[in-house]
């Protein structure tokens, strides 16, 4: 096991993820963890993360210098490297010039275990205002840059390593090699950890924590809440109640698919409650055209329905949420302008009587959640599902939402997804049909039509913060168009959205 001690840097969970990619188990803990606890955990290696402080400030995050004498290999990254230098007698100062971004680093020694297989000149990601001006006694400087005299240093005999740059981010071109060297060559990890170990361990921990208690899960049918629900069901079976609110704004057949998996005829021993609440939602949305108002109505109504169901169940001990790591980071930022008020089934705690929130996936990234889902035997169509917004089709229908418009967009979207799947198009982050609020003149048979235009959207993105419009094969677009205008009543025109994000957003509202 590798222990990551968190000094408040932005990329801490990314470090953990990189370690896990090497099939080595990894946990992130606060930098305040006691030495006794660390000895008890007996990690094979320790990584000190970056952080926002300056090591020489009185109240800066620190650790005991004894940490470096436990006989456990340590890798300090950025702030962690400066802390190692500072606590062991080196000198840390404000750098004359800050280094941010991709920087060429020159390796000085050809024999560092950390840099085995790394080029002498290698591009690394820097982000620092302080730097190590002088390495502590016993340390050898193993890399530098024109600005940074100690871009990396090590004391091989004591198994202490430090890098000023961030090997965990992808812009450090050979960062993965360095971390692999650390966990295997330096820490001697076996590399036999797999996601099934996470799954088994989490189930045991949940079982121990919840005991005979009762848990409630708001199930959306999306990947995250489905994986969380299955983990819980394996841990506590029928002590778990899953409430699935069908707001009538789901994709075609989605409600039934979720019920097939989690309902009484599915493989899991959970108490499943499906609330068919579409009429309530349609009534509330009648006549409303403003996107933010629609979002708020859907979000609030969702909570109300959930609350009513939760009350029927009575007090529960635990509320289960499918929060994953990117949600944690995004909610931590919280300072940017509100572009859209995102609604997530996660945001319910104020309304439900419970003791504690359980978030078994909060340290995982999306692809890791999918891997865990496969380990748990969740069907592929659920595990591989593309992201679907909480307000559902409500924000893919421009203008007023009506039952008829929901039918149109559901059918068009189902055709589009079928054709994309059939053509085996890969690399799409998200793709869907939206119903514009525009009607136009067409001709069908010998008659005039005046019908809606469907907009197709497909984007490539890795983080959903920015996105490029995908260049779908023309044949796929043509086939989809022809099927939609022929099979979906009320549509006579299909448009393709070529806009990126920014300036557009991925969803239409
Ligand atoms: P936008 O439209 O903001 O979407 O570019 C970025 C990503 O977020 C999803 N999205 C939501 N997800 N609740 C969610 O859980 C929401 O209210 C919501 N709005 C947008 C969107 O599908 C895309 O993946």
UniProtKB/TrEMBL annotation:
Enzyme class: ligase
Transmembrane segments: none
Cross-referenced InterPro entries: Class_I_gatase-like (IPR029062), GATASE (IPR017926), GMP_synth_C (IPR001674), GMP_synth_GATase (IPR004739), GMP_synthase (IPR022955), GMPS_ATP_PPase_dom (IPR025777), Rossmann-like_a/b/a_fold (IPR014729)
Gene Ontology molecular function, alphabetical: ATP binding; GMP synthase activity
Catalysed reactions, as listed in the record: XMP + L-glutamine + ATP + H2O = GMP + L-glutamate + AMP + diphosphate + 2 H(+)
Active-site residues, as the UniProt record annotates them: 78 (nucleophile), 166, 168
Domain GMPS ATP-PPase per the UniProt entry, residue ranges: 193-385
Subunit structure: Homodimer.
Main function: Catalyzes the synthesis of GMP from XMP.
Protein name: GMP synthase [glutamine-hydrolyzing]
Organism of this sequence: Selenomonas montiformis
Gene: guaA
């Amino acid at each position: 096991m590798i222990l990551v001690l968190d000094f408040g840097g932005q990329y801490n969970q990314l470090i953990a993820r990189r370690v896990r990619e090497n099939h080595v188990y990894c946990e992130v803990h606060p930098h305040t963890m006691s030495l006794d606890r660390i000895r008890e955990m007996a990690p094979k290696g320790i990584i000190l993360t970056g952080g926002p402080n300056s090591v020489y400030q009185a109240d800066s995050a620190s650790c005991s210098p004894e940490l470096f004498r436990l006989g456990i290999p340590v890798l300090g990254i950025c702030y962690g490297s400066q802390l190692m230098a500072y606590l062991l007698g080196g000198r840390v100062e404000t750098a004359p010039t800050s280094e941010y971004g991709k920087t060429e680093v020159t390796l000085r020694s050809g024999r560092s275990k950390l840099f085995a297989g790394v080029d002498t000149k290698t591009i690394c990601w820097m982000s620092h205002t302080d730097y190590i001006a002088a390495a502590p006694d016993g340390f050898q400087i193993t890399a530098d840059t024109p600005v940074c005299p100690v871009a990396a240093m090590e004391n091989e005999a004591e198994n202490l390593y430090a890098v000023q740059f961030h090997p965990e981010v992808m812009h450090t071109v050979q960062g993965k090699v360095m971390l692999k060297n650390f966990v295997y060559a330096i820490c001697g990890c076996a590399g036999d950890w797999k996601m099934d170990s996470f799954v088994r361990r989490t189930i045991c921990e949940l079982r121990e924590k919840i005991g005979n208690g009762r848990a409630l899960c708001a199930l959306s049918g999306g990947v995250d809440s489905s994986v969380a629900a299955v983990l819980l069901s394996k841990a506590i079976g029928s002590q778990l109640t899953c409430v699935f609110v069908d707001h009538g704004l789901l994709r075609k057949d989605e409600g039934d698919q979720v019920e097939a998996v989690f309902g009484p005829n599915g493989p899991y021993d959970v108490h499943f409650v499906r609330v068919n609440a579409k009429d309530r939602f349609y009534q509330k949305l009648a006549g409303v055209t403003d996107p933010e108002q629609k979002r708020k109505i859907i979000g609030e109504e969702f909570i109300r329905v959930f609350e009513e169901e939760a009350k029927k169940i009575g007090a529960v001990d635990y509320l289960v949420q499918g929060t994953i790591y990117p949600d944690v980071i995004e909610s931590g930022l919280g300072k940017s302008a509100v572009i859209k008020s995102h609604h997530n089934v996660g945001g319910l705690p104020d309304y439900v009587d419970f003791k504690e929130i359980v978030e078994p996936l909060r340290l995982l990234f999306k692809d890791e959640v999918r891997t865990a889902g496969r380990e748990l035997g969740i069907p592929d169509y659920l595990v591989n599902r593309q992201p679907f917004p909480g307000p559902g089709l409500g924000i893919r229908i421009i203008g007023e939402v009506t039952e008829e418009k929901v039918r149109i967009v559901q059918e068009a979207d189902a055709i589009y997804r079928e054709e994309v799947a059939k053509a085996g198009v890969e690399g799409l982050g998200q793709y869907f049909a939206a119903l514009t609020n525009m009607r136009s003149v067409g001709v069908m048979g010998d008659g005039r039509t005046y019908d809606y235009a469907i907009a197709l959207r497909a984007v490539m993105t890795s983080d959903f913060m920015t996105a490029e419009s995908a260049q779908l094969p023309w044949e796929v677009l043509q086939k989809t168009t022809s099927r939609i205008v022929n099979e979906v009543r009320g549509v006579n025109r299909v448009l393709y959205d070529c806009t990126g994000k920014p300036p557009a957003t991925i969803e239409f509202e």
